[in-house]
Specification:
Blueprint lengths: L1 H29 L2 E2 L1 H11 L1 H22 L4 E10 L4 E5 L2 E6 L2 E14 L3 H67 L5 H35 L9 E2 L12 H11 L1 H21 L5 E12 L13 E10 L7 H67 L5 H35 L4
């Protein structure tokens, strides 16, 4: 009997577990904490932009393969039919002798092998190889930009959460002050305008809390968009909004940037491409040489099986030299245009290097400012907290007014916001410095 009772009980227990499992799984998924490294890694694996850059690499490889085929012989064929108004004849010993029928069918198979093209083929192939290098470097550049966007979105969430925390603490503190003010008003210790002041400040704080929560939600949506996640997916982040002193000097950062920045590598590749473009333009100054081989079948019927006037098949081979040696300076103008384009790229590189110098300097100054502000603003928070505590105690003892308490609360809120803003500026400046030197 006991065994019979236990069977339904076990079934009910298993059924309950089955119902609870989906909820437990969802809860576990929501508890996943995203670190900065995990966030960057997920963005790298899902980014649509990176996928398009990878397609560009594939396209560049196909272009290289196309250029390679230009070195190989080309095979072709043609089939033609010619109808003449009459048989072609020639005079032979006073008589007209036919030499060609009215109907003539010809099939031609041809092979062409380039021998010399004025270095045009080698230049085109080298350009295609550089195209692969360029596409791969552009992929690295997109990764660098993506990592910077992830970092900024990550820190935006952290500072938005701190803003919610500050607003929540302000609401809690003002709620307590309103309760105290109402109890004093009920016993006639303060006028009604003091109570109204406290209630108005509480209403403003509650409105600010709603705004802060909305900003936090929006920052999460932006983060999810970058990581290609559902826009309203919950996000929990590791809190790294802390002060971490940066060690390094301007010259070492600058050297790292010049060695690692993909933008500089892109321009270096562009300059190499310009060299090949110049060489390609100069190839027009040389003749082109090619070898051809043709196998020909002719006849006066569709099967090109010969006729009384010519053999059924024959072959011929030729060495062909072609040279357009005068085009009124067109080649020289083309070469000059390519050389000018190379000079433009070199000047663009110099301008980019100047921009990188300024970018690194700006990031270092922002770091320096944040590092100076963090201790100061942190101390200001401690002082503002103590100031509020003293004023609340004085108000409870009725030796000060509600205005002093509200002013102290507003001062504390501003101090906290300033402190977290300094932390945000510090971390964002570090992220921008990393981007400036070409690091993730």
């Amino acid at each position: 009997m006991r065994l019979n009772r236990s069977v339904p009980d076990i079934r009910v227990f298993m059924f309950c577990i089955f119902l609870l499992l989906p909820g437990m799984t969802a809860a576990e998924e929501q508890k996943v904490i995203y670190t900065l490294e995990k966030s960057i890694g997920e963005a790298m694996s899902k980014s649509w932009r990176l996928r398009t850059k990878q397609e560009k690499i594939d396209q560049a490889n196909f272009l290289r393969d196309q250029a390679k085929t230009e070195f190989l012989p080309k095979l072709g064929m043609s089939y033609g039919y010619t109808r003449q108004s009459e048989e072609r004849k020639t005079s032979f010993m006073g008589a007209q002798v036919p030499v060609s029928p009215k109907d003539n069918f010809q099939w031609r198979g041809s092979l062409t092998q380039p021998v010399f093209t004025g270095f045009a083929l080698t230049s085109s192939y080298r350009l295609a190889e550089l195209g692969i290098d360029l596409s791969e470097t552009n992929l690295e550049l997109e990764k660098l930009d993506l990592a910077a966007r992830v970092k900024e979105a990550y820190f935006n969430i952290l500072v938005a959460d701190k803003a919610v925390e500050v607003a929540q603490k302000e609401v809690e503190s003002l709620t307590s002050n309103v309760k105290v003010a109402r109890s004093f008003f009920n016993v006639g210790m303060i006028p009604i305008n003091d109570l109204l002041k406290a209630e108005v400040e509480l209403a403003n704080a509650e409105q600010n809390l709603v705004k802060a929560k909305n900003a936090a939600m929006l920052s999460r949506s932006a983060f999810n968009t970058i990581l290609v996640r559902p826009i309203d997916e919950p996000v929990a982040l590791e809190d790294i909004l802390t002060y971490r002193p940066e060690k390094g000097d301007y010259e070492s950062y600058l050297k790292t940037a010049f060695d690692a920045r993909p933008e500089i590598k892109v321009l270096d590749i562009n300059i190499l491409q310009a060299d090949q473009q110049i060489r390609l333009a100069k190839s027009k100054r040389y003749p082109e040489i090619a070898l051809t081989y043709d196998y020909i079948k002719e006849g006066d019927t569709l099967d090109v099986s010969g006729s009384p006037y010519h053999d059924a098949n024959r072959w011929e081979t030729m060495a062909v030299l072609s040279w357009t040696f005068w085009e009124w300076g067109k080649t020289n103008y083309s070469v000059s245009e390519k050389e000018s384009a190379k000079k433009e790229l070199m000047q663009t590189k110099s301008s980019l290097e100047d921009s990188i110098r300024l970018e690194i300097k700006d990031a270092l100054l922002a770091l320096e400012l944040a590092e100076k502000n963090i201790p100061t603003t942190g101390k200001a928070v401690e002082q503002a907290e103590e100031n509020l505590r003293v004023n609340e105690e004085r108000y409870k003892a009725q030796v000060t007014t509600i205005t002093e308490v509200l002013d102290a609360q507003a001062l504390l809120t501003r101090a906290r916001v300033t402190y977290y803003s300094a932390l945000y500026d510090h971390n964002l400046a570090k992220a921008r410095l990393e981007r400036a030197i070409g690091a993730y």
